[in-house]
Amino acid sequence: MPLRKNIPARLLGLLVLLLSCWACAPSAPGPEADYDPEARLAELQITLPAPPRPVANYVNGVRAGNLIFLAGKGPRRADGTELTGKLGQEVSIAEGYEGARLTAINQLAVLKDMLGDLKKVKRIVKVLGMVNATPDFVEQPKVINGFSDLMVEVFGARGRHARAAVGMASLPRGQAVEIELVVEVFE
What we know:
The chain is an alpha+beta fold. The chain has helices at residues 2-24, 37-43, 93-115, 140-155; strands spanning 61-64, 67-73, 121-132, 162-168, 177-185. Strands 1-2-5-3-4 form a 5-stranded mixed sheet, with helices on one face. α3 packs parallel to α4 (140-155). The termini are far apart.
């Protein structure tokens, strides 16, 4: 008889355990209702331009499964001009930072064009930031932070990424920065 008295208690314990596991289980993959990078862009008063067109024989991005590989883009303004010059010479760190931020906006325009909705971005995975710099310039990370900071501002924790920030002897058309990235998207 003592075993029968414990059956309801055991069932109750099992039920509580199952419910707690169910409550902690991850939800179905996909963006949460409150995840809206485009609304965040509006809060930041950022309007995405038309995506910059490739300047040679390549495409802006290639999707392979749930990854998108974006070609390098630079700090092209809406009027078509670019931030050019060398960091450590005629371009300051602050100007380079703003150029990297502008490059982020251009890359977001490409993503929006490819995906239709930035809510489909699951994670910014990897960033390669190239800085047109003098041989003695060593502050590349401070420049590329302009890109990284905006990714985190727009995507929150999903915008945190692995990154390389490297110096280059030159970049196409003399642009001050060029940045490429890899993005994971929801299936």
